[in-house]
Design a protein that fits this description.
By secondary structure, the protein is of the alpha/beta class. α6 runs parallel beside α7. The chain is elongated, with a radius of gyration of 26 Å. The two termini are 44 Å apart.
Length: 486
């Protein structure tokens, strides 16, 4: 994280590193670094060169920042041919100036104070890829206050502070674009804001975290434990050393927050999302689900119904032949049900340097096309005009009605099973399927696995609380919600 707001001089032996002065313009002129624009006829090329480039200030040169620079350099010609205007990274804020100089070369202005970037008069748009929610918020709001457009891949920032940021952008007449913050290489924000704009969205369901999808895929394919699958994911670089953000469902919840706002015209409200991760999943339940014809995925689900909105992230049983069941490894997919288009699905990589850069640059291309338009003629940040954004009640998870997978470890089966069915009948919990299976670790026990009829969670929890007091029911019940998604 950036520690101070003071720009430093270039390290000894690196005279080509440029530093922006604290006041006034940087005298160094950044030239075209994309090679000749060979696409199209000579007049088109001349027109591209005649137009002033979109000058980008980049905050951060980590995985995403470096990928953005690399893709812009490699594909400069085709990007300019599509936009009619060059996109140039003019200034970069980094912590390690020497490392950045080796990557970028001498023609990019380098500073170690990110506020020099957002305050510089020659920066048209600020790309924020430093992450976090504190300094990033300050920088984004300062850029907006200075009348600069912002592109960010920071889902946590927008999930937590999005309402403030979008309101500030609206007041200043600038754009905050964030395709890379949700599903990376999947252009789902553009699909919701533009491609499906004629539709009423009924629900969104998505595999929107690659780490957890890789872990669940390994648990299913190899029968390994969560801990072993996590260790494998960390070894391969799919999981962080501290994986809590991913495996506890927080990352997916940040993304779901933004999807729901674009789908339903509601404010950004991360604090209302029900979040469960995958850390408590047992490989035995994944295997049992497979025997019943299902698989387990961590889904982000946003639904609109007569009572309001459901916003939830949790492990979910889906049919083994469902499209989402075939999304494996670190891949992501988002499915949308709308009234006119029906069910549509979007698939692609959910992480990666150049994959995220693709989304960031797509936002920059959009800015090239609309920056001269009046703000009212641009696509709204959250798909709906600001005056049309309205609160809807968000259902507590206890009030959500779904089918449940339930496993109970039972001793003395013949005596316990009739009582079990009577308990569910008294609680008005319907049972559509019941199987008695071999217990995965204790031959003295039976695993009773059942699927309920659609049931409110509060009703099921009441019945389970009674069952768990019985001496013949060992430990705690295992429950997983089920979705049809059709």
């Amino acid at each position: 994280m950036y520690q101070d707001h003071q720009a430093s001089v270039s390290p000894p032996g690196r005279p080509k590193v440029k530093r922006a002065p604290s006041g006034g313009r940087e005298p160094h002129e950044v030239g075209n670094r994309g090679g000749s624009f060979a696409l199209g006829n000579h007049s088109s090329v001349a027109s591209i060169h005649a137009m002033a480039p979109l000058r980008v200030g980049l905050l951060g040169l980590g995985t995403v920042g470096a990928g953005t620079y690399t893709v812009l350099q490699r594909n400069a010609e085709v990007i300019a041919a599509r936009t009619g205007r060059r996109i140039e990274i003019a200034m970069v804020a980094v912590r390690n100036l020497a490392r950045a100089a080796r990557l970028l070369g001498p023609e990019v202005v380098l500073v170690d104070d990110p506020f020099l970037v957002v305050n510089h008069p020659d920066t048209d748009v600020v790309v924020e890829v430093i992450g976090g929610t504190t300094l990033a918020r300050e920088l984004v709001l300062q850029a907006i206050a200075n009348g600069k457009h912002v592109v960010t891949a920071n889902k946590a920032l927008l999930a937590v502070h999005g309402s403030e940021i979008f309101a500030a952008a609206q007041a200043q007449g600038v754009v905050v674009a964030y395709e890379g913050a949700v599903a990376v290489s999947i252009p789902i924000i553009k699909a919701l804001r533009e491609g499906l704009t004629a539709n009423r969205i009924e629900w969104i369901a998505g595999i929107i975290n690659g780490t957890t999808n890789y872990i669940l895929s390994e648990m299913k394919a190899k029968g390994v434990s969560f801990a072993d699958a996590l260790a494998d994911a960390q070894r391969l670089g799919y999981a962080e050393a501290d994986p809590a953000f991913d495996v506890e469902g927080i990352d997916a919840a940040h993304k779901l927050t933004l999807l729901a706002s674009n789908a339903f015209g509601v404010p950004v409200q991360f604090d209302k999302v029900h979040v469960e991760g995958i850390t408590q999943l047992d490989s035995a339940d994944i295997a049992f689900a497979e025997r019943l014809g299902y698989c387990v995925k961590l889904l982000g689900i946003a639904k609109r119904n007569a009572q309001g909105l459901e916003l939830r992230v949790h492990p979910t049983l889906i049919a083994a032949d469902h499209l989402l069941a075939h999304v494996n490894g670190p891949m992501n997919a988002v499915m949308v049900k709308s009234d006119a288009a029906g069910v549509t699905m979007y698939y692609g990589a959910g992480a990666g340097s150049e994959q995220t850069a693709s989304a960031v640059i797509a936002d920059l291309v959009d800015l090239c096309r609309v920056s001269d338009l009046a703000h009212r003629h641009r696509v709204p940040s959250l798909a709906f005009q600001p005056g049309a954004i309205a609160e809807l009640p968000v259902l507590a998870v206890e009030d959500v009605e779904t089918v449940y997978y339930l496993r109970l470890d039972i001793a003395k089966l013949s005596r316990t099973l009739p009582k079990l069915m009577a308990c569910f009948a008294d609680a008005k919990v319907g049972v559509q399927q019941l199987d008695v299976l071999e217990h995965p670790s204790d031959p003295e026990l039976n695993a009773v696995v059942l699927l309920t009829e659609p049931t409110q969670e509060r009703v099921l929890r009441g019945a389970i609380a009674e069952l768990e007091q019985w001496p013949t029911v060992m430990g705690f019940a295992k429950t997983i919600r089920m979705e049809g998604l059709c």
